[in-house]
Amino acid sequence: MFNFGRSLFCRPTFARTVRKMCPAAAYSKSNKSPTSLPSPPPPTSPSYVEALYTSWLDDPNSVNASWNEFFKNSDAMEDKVPARNIGSAAATAATAAVPKNRSTDNQPILLSVIGAYVSRGHFAAMLDPLGRSKVFTDPKYRIEALYGGRASPISSADLNQTFPLPPATSIGGDNRDGALPLREIVERLERIYCRSVGVEYAFIDSVEQNQWIKERVEMPGEISALNNMEKRRLLTSLAKSTGFESYLARKWSSEKRFGLEGCEVLIPALNEILDESSYYGVDTVFLGMPHRGRLNVLANVCRKPLRTIFAQFHGLKAADHGSGDVKYHLGAHVKQTNERTGKPLTVALVANPSHLEAVDPVVLGKTRAEQFYRGDSNGDKVMSILLHGDSSISGQGVVYETFNMSGLPDYTAHGTVHVVVNNQVGFTAEPKISRTSNYCTDVAKVIGAPVFHVNADDPEAVIRVCKIAAKWRKTFKKDVVIDLVCYRRNGHNEGDEPMFTQPLMYKKIRSIMPVFEKFKDKLVVENVVTSDEAKKESDEYDRLCEEEFSASLKETHVKYGDWLDSPWPGFFKETTNLNVPKTGVTEDILLHVGNVFSSLPSAAGDQKFVVHKGIDRIFKGRQKMLADRVVDWALAEAMAFGSLLKDGTHVRLSGQDSERGTFSHRHHVLHDQLDGKTYRPLANLYPKQADYTVCNSFLSEYAVMGFELGYSITNPNALVCWEAQFGDFNNTAQCIIDQFISSGESKWMRQSGLVLLLPHSYEGMGPEHSSARLERFLQMCSEDADVLPEKNEHSVVKQLQDTNWIIANCSTPANYFHILRRQLALPFRKPLVIMSPKSLLRHPDAKSGLDEMTSDTGFLRVIPDNGPAASDPSGVKRLIFCSGKVYYDLIKAREERNLSGTVAVCRVEQISPFPFDLIGEECDKYQNADIMWTQEEPKNNGAWTYVQPRFYTALKGAKTISYAGRPAAASPATGNKVQHAAENHNILIKSFGGI
């Protein structure tokens, strides 16, 4: 039986099969003793069997009878034997190099031919609308493509032979047990695999999925021609797609718009996917795409009003706060009624920058979040579509990271439809210098996603492929790829000259009729439409564009709020409430959460949950802290999460090893040491609590951070945290940080409450495990260092409202507890960047009392000195400001030097927005003290360059501030522990020197 799934001759499987089926005697060419063979290779040698198989193809009687039976019933050798594989499209050329003494009286010929078309037919398909490939003109080249450079196994006599169809093929339609002449079989295979569609699916491991695709592409009824109504609808969609680009080109000929000319079929393709998905029950679709064709998609897929799009070309002032973005980066969120099904359908196009594929994980995060909140556990109602360029899908690593999410339980979006606009050129780079792989889509094979390559100038083939793709996603909830092989009629943008670098390609493009004209002429010949009817379609759309253009002239401002991809209905009702929120909770809640977090699940009968003895010690330590009414970092975090869960707030924490915690402090998922079952204490706090999700991410920062960002912007009433294994690792997600998190609200009016937890402090762990690059985050803060905020009862929250994000370096568990809860208490959402601790997780002095977390308490932006120095401020000679872990080093050194009464140490917990008011108050308190900033980081890193000008503003130039810390350096930290200790010692000497 012909098996299109995993090859039998993958080496482990092959070895087992040969050992089982073929004893040593079987390796003889006759039934003679194996001793007649001179030192045969071992039974597991594929090279030996390949030679044997070649001999058997020439003469089945030349091998042992057991091998004869084996080869007759196996297709697994077809891709292993050189110069033997697979059939031909052109029968006359196919037989040219075939020996004339071939026997056609056996099934392997047919199996070989069918296998060739299934596994390599896409190489011989006529995919390029420019017709530049030799498969269009050279039959010999087509045979080489089909057979991988091998000769055809078919003779002219073979073509007239009648063969019974193997059960695994569907080319016979419902008559699977029938027989056909080989000539007819080859012609059918040609039509299926080598015309406008090339299908890659033979590599898929699942036999069921493999067979499913085979039936869809091979069964006549599954990929039949469109009926006349469908063809007319397709023509209308092409008229809109083409007309939109033509209208913009006429009205704004010098404007960049990154038009879709050359791939106008994208619009009917996306609409077909939406229509089919709506039919299958989907009512919400999130799209991510680059800039090419984006305006057309907004107009003719999302159905964004044309007047709103046209207004973006008028150069109007913005009616909203923020800097905005160019029109081909903006998003949309449109509720519509699907014209085909009559069902409601929400389509959201996610805003994105020119980092073409950076939006991919954001879309998946939004999709997964929407599925979660709606209880759509299988993705039946909510789905995602991602558009790619041919250069970016193969060139940008985040694409692989995004594909890798597809099957992970806590990240899957239950199947994404990927559509590639394959221009066959990236800006000016041709495919041969853009990738090593055969196809730009080869990355999709990693997850077993089928790939449909289709000639974009064959609109009917495109629609048929889209139908299959939508049904695949519905059936298997797995990713699928549609590769629209097209061209780019203009340069990279409308003002670019492509002839500089691709003269031959663009000579060909200039001579090609647009796809709408080709398809129109085809339908006229088929008597589906008349020329007048086709012209009417174009004229109607052009008239609509004129009407909408006139309406757009009445607009006075651009409203970026109209382009939100993530609206939060009703959330901003209380934006006038700018009081500082109280974030403490009652002690009984703290104790309840703490006790559950520090206990094992109740035993069910004899099924006691057995934890590692180390965790047993941790639990006992936690219980002792609760008895003493103090908490450490892990307890405070659990109490913050647990109290929010009690209030109905969904909490999600993800990152590398976040379940346990990189530093083995968290243990939010317990593992039974006997049977491996797991228990999550925070998911079992209250009967009606909100859902708690904690998950270890795969080894990615870029995609996972983007995913969590997308998750966070779906619903404002959730606490979503991404944790770096070490804070330094956020640098591989810098694109998400720069383009989406720090500036998303300014560019796209899109708020997010995402929390970034970045372990940061200098513990002698080297340059890659020390610094979360605090200076980078501070540099991107939108706050003006020279402007002193107005001081009133609302100024604290107003600062938070006006900033682009919040950056903190907490030094106490209680403050960490409060800042997490404050994320949900504010009447708006801002990203929160926390420099998380490492040694402070277990530092004996880094503890907080329950009284610091109860009802009348809140987050402290600054923690003043509360020791002897504060009792007699006039006797203080030095006021040291610091942030984070270095505080504990300073306190210890101060005590050792007996300077507790002469040196005050003040902690800045919220670095941005800068606490101008509290800094001024502290400096005023210590009138006789000089002022110093101490940090662990090098002088050109850390907070120094950020705080220095703000201190001057807060003090109105009355005092200067000096620096103590590491000298400026290229590397963030040393990797030598002796040097690290010496640097720490020097920091303390500088901090207390001269007193």
TrEMBL record:
Ribonucleoprotein in keyword set: no
UniProt keyword annotations, A-Z: Glycolysis, Magnesium, Metal-binding, Mitochondrion, Oxidoreductase, Thiamine pyrophosphate, Transit peptide
Gene Ontology molecular function: any one: oxoglutarate dehydrogenase (succinyl-transferring) activity
Transketolase-like pyrimidine-binding domain residues: 631-843
SUPFAM superfamilies noted in UniProt: Thiamin diphosphate-binding fold (THDP-binding)
Family according to the record: Belongs to the alpha-ketoglutarate dehydrogenase family.
Biological role stated in the UniProt entry: The 2-oxoglutarate dehydrogenase complex catalyzes the overall conversion of 2-oxoglutarate to succinyl-CoA and CO(2). It contains multiple copies of three enzymatic components: 2-oxoglutarate dehydrogenase (E1), dihydrolipoamide succinyltransferase (E2) and lipoamide dehydrogenase (E3).
Protein name as catalogued: 2-oxoglutarate dehydrogenase, mitochondrial
Biological source species: Cinara cedri
